Automatic annotation (TrEMBL), chains A, B, C, D:
This is Hcy-binding domain-containing protein. Pathway: Amino-acid biosynthesis; L-methionine biosynthesis via de novo pathway; L-methionine from L-homocysteine (BhmT route): step 1/1. InterPro entries: BHMT, BHMT-like, HCY_dom, HCY_dom_sf. GO terms for cellular component: cytosol. It comes from Patiria miniata. The keyword Methyltransferase applies. Residues 3-308 form the Hcy-binding domain. One of its GO terms (molecular function) is betaine-homocysteine S-methyltransferase activity. Keywords: Metal-binding, Methyltransferase, Transferase, Zinc. Binds 1 zinc ion per subunit. GO terms for biological process: L-methionine salvage; methylation. Its cofactor is Zn(2+). Zn(2+) binds at C211, C293, C294.
Length: 394, 394, 394, 394
C-alpha cells in the first residue's frame, strides 16, 4: 500500500517534522560547527541513521535527507575540507538512502532539501544560483523523494529562484518553502507577509519559516504570513520549523546574531514543556506541518507528538519510555520527586538557570550587513589570522 | 598487546570517563525518567552502542557498562515494567558485550558498575543488600570487565558494603568508589572527608564523587576528601564524575531536590567551555580520573579531552569535527560570527538564558528524609493517585 | 525683574521638572500608599518644603504644587481619613504657599495641577467632573501660579474636559497636559497619537506623558505623539515626566499592573546613569520639558540637569556635592573604588540585583477593566474583608 | 523625668537604631560620594534635622549624631574641600545640637560616634590614631551624648584602640562597638568571633556589626560573634546595623568591592518586607539593638518597628501613614491593586528588576589590599589623572 502523500496528510491532519540534524550531530561529534556541512552521511552513516531512527521513534512523519548546505559552492567555502573528499552529489545520494531506509521502518515520508547558497551571497545572479540548486535536485529526483523542502533562506529573491528550480526539475513533487526570518521580514527589507505571498506565487504548496528564532517568534511571523496569504487570496498550508532555543532577544537575523551562537546556547534550550506549548499554539494558529530545527532533540519532537496525541490518534513509539506530563515520576525513589508527577507542576515551572552571574537576555551583534555588502562575499580560502583581527576590532 | 590497566594509567597520566547514559538516552527516547533503568541494552542495543561510540570518539578512556540501577530489586520497584521482561543479569550481560565491543574499537577499558539499592532504603540490612550486589557482580566477573565502579551511593554505610562485596567477588579488579554527595557529606550526616576515609579503609583504590552536583561543587567536596585522606595517611587516586548541569543552589541532596529535576534542567546545561574549566580545575586539584555523569553529552566529554590535550598527548578522534576554542567559526558565512573564532571570546562569555521571567536560582525542596525514614521505603507497586495527592499536599 | 514664563523658557531652552512627591514622601513617612493624597501640606509642611528645596537644588525649574489627587471626591474615597479633617482647598492653599516660597529661593516657576477623578470613573459625566476640577482651579488662580498641569489621566476624554476647564477658569495661564499612557494608547483604546491631537485641539500648550512607564516607554509613546501632532499640523512643546522605575514588562496600564506595585519596586529604581541617558534621549527627540514622576528622587533630577549642563549653561546647586560621572570617587579611600572615577565605567555598568531567586521580568496583572466597568466604580467606604476575598479569588 | 539609658532599654526590650545618613543625604544632595563627610551639619542643618525627624517618626530610639568620618585627618583626605572651611569639632558640635533637638521631640537617645581613620591606614600607630579619636570625643562629652558608638572599623586592632579611648575620655557612657565585617572576619584575618571577644575585653558594652553587608550576611556573622562571646564567658548585648542593599555576592570587604558601589546599587535596595524579615530574624537571634546603615531610608526603619510592634508595645508615629502589610491598598482605585492588600502577597513576592540585560550577581573586585599595603596609604592631595590611569590598568 503506498504511503499517503504530504498534501493529503496535511489536508486531513497534522504532520510532524523531524528535528535539527546539524546541531544534534555536532554535539554527537559528527558535524563541524562553522561550515555546518553534512558529510557525515558518507563518513559516519550509522550516526546519521541512528538520529533518523530516534526522530522516527519520537513521532516524526517526515525524514528530511541530511543534505543541509550540501551545495558544491558551500562545501568548498572558506577552507572547508569536505570538498576535497566529496561532491555534494555523493553526500546527497547517501543521505537519500539512509532517510529512505529509516522512513520505511515506519510510515514516514522522505523530503529532500536545498538551502541558500554562497553563490547568491556573492552576487553571481539567478542562473549561477539555480545551477547550484539543480545539481542537488538531480539526486533527489533520481532517488524519488516524496517531496521537496526549500529552507533556510534569508532573502525572498533566492527562495523564489529555488522554488522555481524545484518546480521545473522535480515535476509532481509537492514543494514546501521556508524562510529563516522573523516578524521583521527578510534581509533586504521585504515584509514577512510579502515574502509569503511571493513564495506562494512562485508555486510553493506549503509555506513557512524555519530556524533562526524560537517558537514564539516563528509563530508571530507566521501569523503575519497567514494574514498576507489570506488577503492575497491564497490558501496554502503553513509550516513551522523553529529553533529549540529561546530567542526573545534576537534581532532581525535571529540567533546567529546572539553572542551565544553557536557555542553558548545551552541555557536557552527548550524544555519538553515549552514544546508542548509550541505544538498547541501552532496547531491553534492553523499550522499543520509542525516541525523543528536546530536545537530540537528527539525528546522535543516527542513532546510535540504527545501534545497532539488526540489530533493524531496515537502516541509515538518513543512514548513507551515516557510517562505523560511527568507521570513516570510516580516510579521515582524520592517522595518529593514523586510529588512532581503532575501536569500543573511542569506547566507552571519557571526553570532557573543556575547561572546567577549571567543575565536573561543578550544584546545581539547587529552588523546589519546582508547580500550585496562586500563583507558577505564568500571565498574558498579559510579566514586568516589577519582577517580575524580586522573583524575583532569592529 | 594487552591494554594498560586503570591504576597504571592513573599513575602515569589522566583517565577520561564517559558521560551520562541515563539522561542522554532518556532524551533519545530509550530510557524512562522515573525508574531510570537500563533495559535499553536488551531492547535497543544499537542505541546504546551508538552512544558508547560517541563517547569513545569524544575521548573517553573508559566504557562504563550501561548497568545503572540494574539490581533486581530496582527493576521491580514501584511498578517498573522492566522486571516483567528482564532480569538484571540479562540486562547486564548485554551491557558488557556492547561496552567491550566498542572499547575494542579503541584503547578503552571496560568498567562494570553497581549502585545503591532499594533494599538498603528498605532497611533490610547488610546481607540482603550484598546479595543484590553479588547477583550483579557475577556477570561482571564472567565478562572479565577491566575494573569495577561502585557509584551513586548516598550513604557511606552502603558503599562500604558494596566495596567489600566487590573486593570479595571480583578478586584482582581495581575498585573505584564514588558517592553522590557534596561538601555537606552523606545523608546520615557523615562528613565528606570521613566518607572518603571509610571508602579507603574498605579497600577502594580510586575514591571520588559522581552525580548530584555540578563540577564546582563536586570539586569543593573532593578537596575535603583529599584533605581527609592525606590526614589519615591514605594515598589514593581521586575521581570526579559530576553533573553536566549548574547546581549552585542545590541543597544537600543535590539536583534531585531542585524543582527543575528532571524535566526542566535545560537552562542549567553546561557549555563546552564550562567543561574546559572543569577539566583544568580537576586536574589542578590532583584528580586523575576525570569523568562525567548525567547531563554530559559527547561534546562535553570532548571538551575535557581537548582541555587536556597537552597532558594526554593527543586530541580525541571527535576533534576532527571541532575547531579548538571556536576556531571552526573561521569557516562561518557571517563576518560577526567569524569574529568569535577566538578563545577569549568564549572564555569570557556569560551566556544569557533567554528566559527573563525565570530566576537564576531555585529554592530546593528540602524534605530532609533519608534512609531510616518511612517515606523512603520502596515498594513494588506503582504510586497511586491517592498516594500522589498526599505528597502534593506536603 | 519678573521671571521668564514657561513658554518663553521652552522656546529658548530646556525646562527641568521636579520629581515624584507621593512616592518620595511615602518613603519619608508622610504620604499613605493606597489613597496617595497630599494632606502632608497641612500636616507636615516642613517635610514638603524640604523636598521642594531638594528638587530646586537638584536643578528643577518648576515647583509643582503638591496637590496630586486633592480633589474632594478623591479625599473621601474608600475610607480615606483625610477628608474628615481637610478640604481639597485647604490642602491646595498650603501647597501653593510652600511651592511659591521655595520657588522664590531660586528662579523656579510654580505649577498648579489637577488629575483624574473618581467622579469620572463613576461615570457621573462631564459637568460633575468639571465641577471637581473647578474647585481646585480656584485656589490656583487665587495664588497666581505660573502655569497649570493637567496630569495623570488614563482617558483622553477626561483630560480634554480638564484642559477645557483650565482654559476657561485660568485665563492666560499656559497649560501642560500629560496623560499616563504608553505606546498602546488610552484605556478606551484611543491611540497615543490621537490622544495628543485631542489634547492639542482642546487647547493644551505643552503635551506629553507622565507616570506609569519608564523613560524608554514614555519616549517611545512620545515619538508617536510627536508624529501625530506634526501630521495634524500642530506645533506644540513636548513634555516627559516618566517613572523612576524600569518597566519593560508593564502592560497597557503601566506599573500599576506589575505585581511589584507599589511595595516591591525597589529593584526597578533607576540609577543616576539611567537618568543621564533619559535626559539625552528626550532632548534628542525634541522634548523640551524634561521632568520626572514617581520614583524620581532629587539625585535623579540632578542627573538630568548634569547631562544637560551644556544646553542649560550651568550645573545645579546640588552638584557642589557631586563629582560628574563618578569623579568624586577620586577622593575615596580604596584604590579599586578610585578606579571607578570615570564615565565609561558607569555608562557600561550593568548593575546586578543581588536577588538570584528573583526573575528580571514580571507578568503583569491584566484585568483589563477601565472606565465604564462596574469594578472601577469608586465608593466612600473602605474595602471590607469580604470585598477583598472576592478580589483575591479572581 | 530622665530618659531610660541604653543598657536599661536593651535589658528590658529592644532598641531600634536609625538609618543611613550618608547615603540618604547623598541622594538628597547634601553629601558628596567619595569623601562621604558630614559637613552638611554646618552647611544645611535643616536637611540633617529633617532626616533625623523622619527616622524618629519611623520608630528610631536613637539619634546618631551625623558625625561619620568627621575626624580631621579624613576631612582633609584626598582633596576633600570640607577641611578648608570646617574643623571636625565644628561639624560635630552642630551634629550634637541637631540630634539632641530632634531626640527631645520624642523619647530618643543621642549617640555620638567615631569611626576608622586615615591615620590608621597610614600606619602612624596607636598614639596618633587615638589623638584623632580624642579630638572628636571631647565634643561628645561636652554635649553630654547618652552613649557612644565606635562603628565602621575594618580592623579589630583599631576598634580596640577606639573603645579604649572612649572608655578613658567618656567615663560612665555606655559603649557600643561595631565592626564592618562579615563572617570571614577582619581585614587582617582575625575571625569574626575573635573580633567580638577582643571588643568585649576592651570594654564594649554592646557588640556588633554595621555596614558593608546585607542583613542576612550581618546576622550570619553576628551568630559567629555570639557563639564566641558565649564561649569566652561574656554576656554582652548584640547590635546589628546592616546595609539596606542585598549583597549575597559580596566578598570579604563587602559592598565596597561590588562593581555597583556606590552609584549602581539601586537594584539591590531592600523592600520593606525584607526589613520585616530582618527584624524578626535579628530578634530571634537575640539581637536587641536592631538598627540600620547605608541604604536604609525612613520607611525601612518603620518596617522594623512595625515588625516588632508586639515586642515594643506600640507602632511608630509614621505608621499613621502606613497600613500594616499593605492594608492601605484597600483604599486604592484599582481592584487588582486592592487584591494585594494582604500579608501573604507581600511576604511571597519575588520582585523583578525590570533589567533583563543585567545579571543577579556580580563578581566583586577583590584587590585584597588592607592596612599595611602601600596602596592604602592616604594623602591630602586629590587623585590625579595619572594616578587614575594606573588604577584602571590594574
Amino acid at each position: 500500500m503506498p504511503k499517503k502523500g504530504l498534501i493529503e496528510r496535511l489536508d486531513s491532519g497534522v504532520v510532524i517534522g523531524d528535528g535539527g540534524f546539524v546541531f544534534a550531530l555536532e554535539k554527537r561529534g559528527y558535524v563541524k560547527a562553522g561550515p555546518w556541512t553534512p558529510e557525515a552521511t558518507v563518513e559516519n552513516p550509522e550516526a546519521v541513521r541512528q538520529l533518523h531512527r530516534e526522530f522516527l521513534r519520537a513521532g516524526s512523519d517526515v525524514m528530511q535527507t541530511f543534505t543541509f548546505y550540501a551545495s558544491d559552492d558551500k562545501l568548498q567555502n572558506r577552507g572547508n575540507e569536505a570538498q576535497k573528499k566529496y561532491t555534494g552529489a555523493m553526500i546527497n545520494q547517501q543521505a537519500c538512502e539512509i532517510a529512505r531506509e529509516v522512513a520505511n521502518e515506519g510510515d514516514a515520508l522522505v523530503a529532500g532539501g536545498i538551502s541558500q547558497t554562497p553563490t547568491y551571497l556573492n552576487g553571481l545572479g539567478k542562473e549561477a544560483v539555480q545551477k547550484e540548486f539543480e545539481k542537488q535536485l538531480k539526486v533527489f529526483v533520481d532517488n524519488k523523494v516524496d517531496f521537496m523542502i526549500a529552507e533556510y533562506f534569508e532573502h525572498v529573491e533566492e527562495i523564489v529562484w529555488a522554488v522555481e528550480s524545484i518546480k521545473q526539475k522535480c515535476p509532481g513533487m509537492p514543494i514546501a518553502a521556508n524562510m529563516c526570518i522573523g516578524p521583521e521580514g527578510d534581509m533586504h527589507g521585504v515584509s514577512a507577509g510579502e515574502c509569503a505571498v511571493r513564495m506562494a506565487k512562485a508555486g510553493a504548496d506549503v509555506i513557512g519559516i524555519n530556524c533562526h528564532f524560537d517558537p514564539d517568534t516563528v509563530l508571530a511571523a507566521l501569523r503575519l504570513m497567514k494574514e498576507a496569504l489570506t488577503k492575497a487570496g491564497f490558501k496554502k498550508h503553513l509550516m513551522a520549523q523553529p529553533l529549540g532555543f529561546k530567542t526573545p532577544d534576537a534581532s532581525k537575523q535571529g540567533f546567529i546574531d546572539l553572542p551565544e551562537f553557536p557555542f553558548g546556547l545551552e541555557p536557552r534550550i527548550l524544555t519538553r514543556w515549552d514544546c508542548h506549548r509550541y505544538a498547541r499554539e501552532a496547531y491553534d494558529l492553523g499550522v499543520r506541518y509542525i516541525g523543528a530545527c536546530c536545537g530540537f532533540e528527539p525528546y522535543h519532537v516527542r513532546a510535540i507528538a504527545e501534545e497532539l496525541q488526540k489530533e493524531r490518534g496515537c502516541l509515538p513509539t518513543g512514548s513507551e519510555k515516557h510517562g505523560q506530563w511527568g507521570d513516570g515520576l510516580r516510579q521515582h525513589t524520592k517522595p518529593w520527586v514523586r510529588a512532581r508527577a503532575r501536569r500543573d507542576y511542569w506547566e507552571n515551572l519557571k526553570p532557573a538557570s543556575g547561572r546567577p552571574y549571567c543575565a536573561s537576555m543578550s544584546k545581539p551583534d547587529e552588523w546589519g550587513v546582508t547580500q550585496g555588502d562586500a563583507m558577505l562575499k564568500q571565498q574558498a580560502q579559510k579566514t586568516t589570522d589577519e582577517d580575524l583581527q580586522k573583524l575583532y576590532k569592529k
